[in-house]
Amino acid sequence: SKQLRWLSSVLAGILMCKIVFDLTRVISASFIARYAKLNDKVKLEWNNRGFSTFHAIVVAAAALYLFLFSDVFANSPDYPIVFRSSPLSDAVLGVSLGYFLTDLAMILYQYPALGGAEYIIHHGLSMYSILLSLLTGQAQFYILMVLLTEITTPFVNLRWYLDASGLKTSKLYIANGVALFFGWLAARIVLIAYFFYHIWRHLDQVRKVFPVGFYSLIGVPGLLFLMNVFWFWKIAKGMVKTL
């Protein structure tokens, strides 16, 4: 039944992407005049960013619930945090895996229209980490913490939407750029720094993770952190230029 639940959540993630992709197309065509004037490639990315935004909101909300309101990861000396999981945490990881599979398939099929090599690396590392944690039931606390960084995605996508709509000089574009800067700093720099601090504080528990998982838990977020620092530098440059 656990394997069936995993498969169901992955398929639910793929179905979620398909439904939101179609809804984004229909709603945009009905209520956004600029959408009809876009070419097919831009429309494809427009709709693609619709389901990436939805995924980010769903995953971030679920992760925050598990961290703040659920007792799954509550402090307990009797059971190491790296071995804790629940049906909800499994479902969140499965849905997220379904999203990354769908998005990566679209990126590869339309390459490089929807993103270059850095997106393939990012998605590949994310899928590897999520799958490893889902199948073993280990380190889900830390994988969910990394997934929480997706909370910045709506700001990234809004920036692109405003640009594609010819609103790059609007006040909303500037305000969103500033929000993106501070959101990225908090979610993808400070949070990941805390991620490694938490591992260091609980190293006795983290060492109990199976060897491949342990080294992946250190290495993969480290690589993602370096990518996030590089993107943060580009965001900072863009914000300064815009201001």
Task: Give an account of the 3D structure.
The structure is a single chain. The chain is mainly alpha-helical and 243 residues long. The chain starts with a helix and ends with a helix. The chain is built from nine helices and no strands. Helix 3 (87-109) runs antiparallel to helix 4. The protein has one domain.
Strand fraction? under 5%
Number of domains: 1
For the termini, the CA-CA separation is: 54 Å
Shape: globular
Biggest sheet statistics:
none
- Give the ordered list of helices and strands: HHHHHHHHH
Low-confidence parts, pLDDT < 50 over ≥5 residues?
A: none
Structural Rg: 19 Å
Structural class: mainly alpha
**In which range does the helix fraction lie?**
over 70%
Supply the number of helical segments.
9
Can you give the mean pLDDT? 93
Number of strands: 0
Secondary-structure topology with pairs:
Blueprint: H1 2-31, H2 40-68, H3 87-109, H4 117-136, H5 140-147, H6 153-164, H7 171-201, H8 203-206, H9 211-242
Organism: Genlisea aurea
InterPro entries: TLC-dom (IPR006634), TLCD (IPR050846)
GO cellular component, one term: membrane
Give a brief description:
With 243 residues, this protein is mostly helical. 78% of the residues lie in helices and 0% in strands.
Keywords:
243 residues; mainly alpha; 0% strand; transmembrane
